[in-house]
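Team,

Forwarding the record for the chain on the shared tracking sheet. I've put the sequence and predicted structure together so nobody has to dig through attachments.
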Amino acid sequence: MKLNDSPPWNLRGKAYILIYKISKKKIESQIKDLEFKGGWGAIMMIRYFESNVGNYDEILWTPGKFSYNHIVAHSIQKIYVSSYDSLYGGRKNWGIPKEIAHFYFENQDHIETIKIGSEKEIFFSCRIHLSNRWGINFKNQFILPNKLLQIQNHKLFLTKFKYSGKAYYAKVLEIESNPQFFPFPGKPLISFYVNPFFLYFPEAQIFNL
C-alpha cells in the first residue's frame, strides 16, 4: 500500500485514556511560549490499526488547555510513536513533537499490560483492567479535547479534529514512569478503554510567529 502523509488523516484503532486534573505549579516550569489555562489533562495510549501511514502505536501527554494570544486549546507536551512515518507526518502537518519509542502490549484475563521504552530501557509501564460492560457511544467534546495548539519552528499550528468511538470503564492497577522521558502525574481520576476509536485529523491552520 502506498503511504500518503498529507492531511487529512483518517485513523482507526483502540485507545486507553487516563484523565487528570493538574495544577499550574506542577507544569509551569515545563511550558514554553504558551500560558497554561487548566482544564482536564490526559495520558492517551492508542493502537492505530489503520491510518494514512499504516498501523502504529502512540502515547501522549496533554496537561490541559493552553493559550497563545487569543487562541485557547489543548497542547501535546510529550508524545512517542512507533513509526517514523507517523513521526515525520505529525511534525510536518500539525507541529506535533513526536519521538520514537518501542511499545509492548499483552492482554490476559481482561488486564492489559503496556510497556514503552527505548532499545535499552522501559520508561513507562502500566496495567489496566478492562471492562466490557456499560459501553457508551461518544463523539467530539466528550471529556477529550477536539482542538490542538502546537508551536514548532516559529510556527503556530491550530487543528480542529474529530473523534468518535465506544468507551468502557477501565481501572488502572499499576502505573510507573521515568519523568526524565515521560511525565508522571500519578494515578488518574478516571480511566476509559475505547474500542473502536476513530480519529479524523484535517489540515491545520498555520501561522508564522
